[in-house]
């Protein structure tokens, strides 16, 4: 099983888009997206220096555009899973079919501008806490009036909040940890970003999303999201909610992902996956930074998709588990049954009670992928729905 990952803020490098502009149509596409985002993506990806592309208002649409531009040159119909870190979730949602590329770019432009404006309201920032006991780290962050904005796994938690709180954390780090201030404009993914969340919600309300065509993981809790409207709501909420990339990686492991491609500008997420998913055999990883990396990425897809690199005649959709628990399929449903959108096909028994599993599309119940009383993880495929494309 193959996953494609879309990176977040901080992964950008000066000039990283330059080699991509040699591909036919790439510059024209970027100029069209620039009009939607309200920034010059061609300039930012080629000539701009590190300081200019550090600006939140510019960085966010630039990263989403870069990921979508790179993915256009991949056979994405063979990809089973998409996920993105922070603003990268907009790119992942577009690649999963929830948003048109134009909507993802537009939302990234609004998100970047509004988060930059929120950062200017009062002095806030972020700091990475590396190492230490996880519970002690979280307790220290809370004790200083800060928020755990990113939980990235591999012994890395990013604290965010008021500058004086960050300074106190740096002078009194948790045992066996070190604190590194990050060069960012403010406290992303905390309540300080509430004005940006409200502004993004106003724009996102005008979008008509589609349900995901592949497994799409959410930063909110690492779960797979079945419905497009819910994913848009999560994208908006993510502006003030912590990024739980640790839970996304846990779901990648639970799904049995064997191959990972990180889209341009690649490296950060690949490093986290490599460190975190050691047990049971680490996935094979390709970092897609330039067009020279495309052959390796396409080869990885061909070997890990299970579809042999050919676009299928039948279009399949996978229904995935919304939670951890044990699965019970609906007794009356056998393989080959006709399903309608929204039909209950079973339930997952969790500690909090049963959670319904519904079909997000109409079609034939082609195959049960989980059976009665099987233990399931969030995002685990439960059934395959087929329909002629």
From TrEMBL:
Residue span(s) of domain Malonyl-CoA:ACP transacylase (MAT): 5-293
Domain of life (superkingdom): Bacteria
Name under which the protein is recorded: [acyl-carrier-protein] S-malonyltransferase
UniProt enzyme class: transferase
GO MF annotation, one: [acyl-carrier-protein] S-malonyltransferase activity
EC number of the protein: 2.3.1.39
Keyword Acyltransferase: yes
Keyword Transferase attributed: yes
Pfam families: Acyl_transf_1
The entry's keywords: Acyltransferase, Transferase
PANTHER family (alphabetical): MALONYL-COA-ACYL CARRIER PROTEIN TRANSACYLASE, MITOCHONDRIAL
InterPro entries with a match to the protein in the record: Ac_transferase_dom_sf, Acyl_transferase_dom, Acyl_Trfase/lysoPLipase, Mal-CoA-ACP_Trans/PKS_FabD, Malonyl_transacylase_ACP-bd, Single_hybrid_motif
GO biological process: fatty acid biosynthetic process
């Amino acid at each position: 099983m193959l996953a494609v990952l879309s990176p977040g803020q901080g992964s950008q490098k000066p000039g990283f888009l330059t080699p991509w502009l040699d591909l036919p149509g790439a510059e024209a596409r970027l100029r069209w997206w620039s009009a939607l985002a309200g920034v010059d993506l061609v300039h930012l990806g080629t000539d701009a220096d590190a300081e200019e592309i550090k600006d939140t208002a510019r960085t966010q649409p630039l990263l989403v555009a870069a990921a979508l531009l790179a993915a256009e040159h991949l056979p994405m119909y063979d990809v089973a899973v998409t996920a993105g870190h922070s603003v990268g979730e907009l790119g992942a949602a577009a690649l999963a079919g929830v948003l048109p590329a134009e909507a993802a770019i537009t939302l990234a432009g609004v998100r970047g501008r509004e988060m930059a404006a929120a950062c200017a309201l009062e002095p806030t920032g972020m700091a990475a806490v590396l190492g230490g006991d996880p519970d002690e780290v979280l307790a220290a962050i809370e004790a200083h009036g800060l928020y755990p904005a990113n939980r990235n796994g591999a012994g890395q938690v990013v604290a965010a909040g008021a500058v004086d709180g960050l300074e106190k954390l740096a002078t009194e780090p948790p045992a066996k940890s070190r604190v590194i201030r990050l060069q960012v404009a403010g406290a992303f993914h905390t309540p300080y970003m509430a004005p940006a969340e409200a502004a993004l919600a106003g724009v996102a309300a005008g979008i008509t999303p589609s349900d995901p065509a592949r497994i799409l993981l959410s930063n909110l809790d690492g779960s797979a999201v079945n419905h497009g409207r819910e994913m848009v709501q999560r994208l908006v909420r993510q502006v003030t909610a912590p990024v739980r990339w640790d839970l996304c990686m846990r779901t990648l492991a639970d799904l049995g992902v064997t191959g990972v491609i990180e889209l341009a500008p690649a490296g950060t997420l690949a490093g986290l996956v490599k460190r975190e998913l050691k047990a049971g055999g680490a996935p094979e990883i390709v970092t897609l930074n330039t067009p020279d990396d495309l052959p390796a990425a396409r080869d990885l897809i061909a070997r890990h998709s299970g579809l042999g690199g050919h676009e299928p005649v039948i279009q399949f959709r996978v229904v995935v588990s919304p939670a951890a628990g044990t699965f019970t399929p609906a007794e009356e449903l056998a393989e080959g049954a006709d399903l309608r959108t929204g039909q209950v096909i079973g339930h997952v028994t969790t500690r909090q009670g049963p959670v319904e599993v519904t079909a997000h599309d109409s079609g034939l119940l082609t195959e049960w992928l989980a059976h009665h009383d099987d233990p399931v993880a969030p995002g685990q495929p439960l059934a395959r729905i087929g329909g002629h494309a």
